[in-house]
Amino acid sequence: MRAARVDPAGRPLENRRRQGAQAIGIVAGWVVVMMAIFWATGGSGRDGAAVPWLLAVGVFSWAFAEIIAGRRGLVWPGSALGIVGPLSVGLGLSVATPEMRAAAPEEQMAVLAGTSALLMCLFLFRFRLPGLVSPVVTFTIVALFLGLYGADPDRLREVEGFSPRGILAAMMRSPVWVAGFGLLSAAAVATARRLDLKGDDFGLASARPLHVIGAGVLALVVGRWLALLPQPLDLILLTGEAAVVVLWALRINRIGVMFTAHLAMARPLVLAITGPLGLTLERTDWAWILIGICIAGFVAWPTLHEQSLRHNWTLGPGGRIPQPRANWWWRYWPYA
User: Fold this and answer.
1) In Å, how far from its chain's centre is CA 145?
2) Burial category of 109 from C-beta neighbours within 10 Å (exposed 0-12, middle 13-18, buried 19 and up)
3) How far is the C-alpha of 78 from the C-alpha of 64, rounded, in Å?
């Protein structure tokens, strides 16, 4: 099998435009096939007539991936197949029996997400496709959330976006979950750094989503813990956490880690400021705050990165020390 060749940001090292067009074509073709299957069978919710066809699409996706990802080493088309194939099988299994077809939509979604995550893992390791790391983690957490809480409106309101960190934010009421995900996220960060320093190109590219997911969840957990402290100690330590995030992002040369972690800990930090002042924030206020955090990060990153290079603090992917460059933030984006 030919190993897929990627850079530390997970992008193909050859024929990017062609691979991008092929990946888009695969997804578009899959949508057309799904519509045709449901139209021809009258939908899977009635008698399960579509199930064999959905499973067949999954089998075909694996066989096709053996050719384009296994033999030819095409990253993006292989990743597209690694998503649509498992989704087809997950969709088929979620309505495979009369009992499952009669189940609540959230139960069907839990089966779909869990099955898809498991099969994506097979694609990920068989064809060495780092782009599947984030979908695997996301779908696993979606399956866990729906399996535990279903469509609980109170929990759904606490979800902070469709991402691992955003979904886990709604599961932070239990100290057990907080501790468990704190340990897992710390392990993800440590693994990502090990891959950064010792991994091959697949390891370097896999480190990127592990860094982002791990740092986001860890910042969320630590922020929730620090928010329980009395004032003003909570504000002082949360500010310290934000500073540590910046230092770590500069150390590993990944701006995405800074954004993800700061957004994850934004809520307790802002509440630690507005709480003593008696201010109540509406949804639009939070939106502007998050936008402000992103803008501030974009503005500050070039200067901070330049200073980090001058003081030999940055040791990025591959254990490389980047050379000082022009003070423009997009020069540092490739390893985000």
Assistant:
1) 15
2) buried
3) 9
What is the C-alpha to C-alpha distance for residues 123 and 28, in angstroms, rounded to an integer? 20
33 vs 147: which has the higher pLDDT:
33
> Token pair of 108, please?
């069907």
Q: Which two tokens stand for residue 56?
A: 């067949």
Sign of the torsion formed by the C-alpha atoms of 41, 45, 46 and 47: positive
Report yes or no: 329 and 298 within 8 Å, Cβ to Cβ.
yes
60: CB partners within 8 A, 6+ apart: 85
Per-residue pLDDT tens digits for 212-226: 999 999 999 999 899
- Exposed, middle or buried by CB within 10 Å (0-12, 13-18, 19+), for 20? middle
In this prediction, residue 325 has a pLDDT band, given cuts at 50, 70 and 90, of low
Q: Lowest mean pLDDT of 41-50, 70-79, 126-135, name the range.
A: 41-50
